[in-house]
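Methods: example folding runs. The two proteins below were folded one after another, and each record is reproduced exactly as written to the output file, sequence line first and structure-token line second.
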Amino acid sequence: MFSVELTKKLIGIESTDPGAFEGLLAEELVRIARAQLPDHAHIEWKEVMPGRPIVRFVLPGTDESLSDFAFICHMDTVPFGGGWHRDPIGAGEENGKIYGRGACDMKSGLAASLSAFLRYAQAGKTKRTVSWIGTCDEEDIMRGSETAADLGWVNAETWLMDCEPTDGKIETAHKGRYWFRFTVLGRAAHASEPQTGADAIAGMAYAIAAIREEIAKLPKDDFLGETTVTFGRISGGTQPYQVPAECTVTIDVRAVPGIGIETIRQILELGTERAAARIPGISSRVEITGQRESVPHHPDNPLLRLARESVLEETGELPQVTAFPGYTDTAVIAVRTGNKNTLSYGPGSLDMAHKPDEYVEIADIERCERVYLNLLQKL
């Protein structure tokens, strides 16, 4: 299939973020699309940041009463990192697998969906407007998908599929992602007389314990499960003989629908109160460093029904429908526009994403291209 060779070609074009970024990859995608799209199609290019575009290939429909359909794929990858035993842009093939940075996240999904889109485009005009969108910055703060929504490339009515690796599942919902910088402030003193100070590190320890306990009490969601918290990085103090006056931790909260950022902020403040009862004299400062709202499961999503049918017809098995563990371009658009018709389905396993010797199974690429083409034909 063309999608397998295209996967190799795209892996060979570095698009790390930070690093080489997406410019060269976008240029190659436009070159491929321009050579294969029919005359009635059109190509759009928008610079989000210098050298960092988003692109759209559009097949205009003949019936404006029908909702548009779009594939959306991010063109950037995380940096190579260490620990590789293979060339990260070598696209080496072995035992039915293709290796390289972005192999599963998500150049194979990009290739499979674009291949299906171009094959579909060559079959003639369509009633429903169909497009393929390549975004930038997904591996950072997702300015590419935000821009696509702001430009009107997608809206609340668009049937939208991203092609992230999903292990053969269809994934439809996302926990909210809230990031904080949480600082406990104490009072410095000589370690020989700790009672004259207020130990910020000890206060942080009590605060973390209280925050974990309170988050564990939050209501669960039937589809997405429980809200979780991770304390990613901690720093504080200066010398072993000085009572520390400050301690800071970064916090990642993955929240189910119904749990907003203010609820989490209140829990952090409660953690401070509990800690201050044990370490008198401490206080805290809460800074929000990232905010992405949750996306609930919509079982009546019409795209979900058609996608399940396409997977069944091409694989012989009904796919499992689950929540996406991370946060995707479709989640950004769902929140930004109120769209309830989004889902994720793509080749590879999220377990391999961002790791050294990242790979994708060739059979996965071929399966997804067949499913994508089947879905397009149903539209």
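Second run, written to the same file directly after the first:
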Amino acid sequence: MPRIIIDTDPGVDDAIAILMALAAPSLELAGLTVVGGNVPHASCLRNALALLEYAGREDVPVFRGSSRPLSGKFPYSRRVHGRSGLSRPLPEPTVRPQPEGAVDFLATQLSARPGEMTLVALGPLTNLARLERQSPGSLSRAAALVIMGGAVDCPGNFTPHAEFNFYSDPRAAHEVLTCGVPLTLVDLGATRQVAIDREAAAGLHSDHPLGRLAAQLTQDWFEVDDRRERFHFHDPLALAAALEPAVITTRQATLAVETGGAEAGGAEAGASRVTASGGPVALADKVNVERLFALVGGWLGWGG
């Protein structure tokens, strides 16, 4: 049975990825480690706990991670995710995060089960960079490392060059990409191949409770702004690639993130473009969109 940890900053598309993981057959979700990013850390933490309680999966532990990047402040993406981070309100969770911090949890899990745990990073890479700083070599003990982030050979979505996750902590992204650990990077060039328009979203329905919530989150995301035309499956694609690698093809690349000495969220952080240099990366290239939506639909029971 695959074991995964999701490092996340929920976030609408993070939430859908988490629901996919909860619905996927024969998968053990060992924990969620939370980082600030799409919204402040307190809101990300609340959203992670609320999603698990909604799903009746209070057994999945949640761990507090970084509320700030390695330097500077997170810029947040309230324009996309709203003030709370979720397009549909969920009840206030009664469960609480674990007393252990995210970095300590990751270090313990990867050390105790080398080669067994897949790590999927859906937000800024601050927790992972701090893990490597505290316990060097920890990431090399993962069975696989899949990251959603970066804009390689394509425009950014937060500045002309920068994707939001890497923009939020360019120094952390650089340190993780160049630490020498083999990883799969699902960047904007891949995730922009996978989207759903307003009409298709309106037609989604499911008899699965997690599928219903995922459909509602997608539909309500469109309702927030009449100008929205397409919802991109950024984080769901990374989660799917971790569980079913055949949904993407990859090409080998050596990558680094230009930090330009900038702090996260600063005026110069647009320099956080991805460039050639650094360590071994399998960069997502082509997406088998039909196969991806068949997986998502199967796990979440989506019809439309």
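Comment on the second run: The mean pLDDT is 92.
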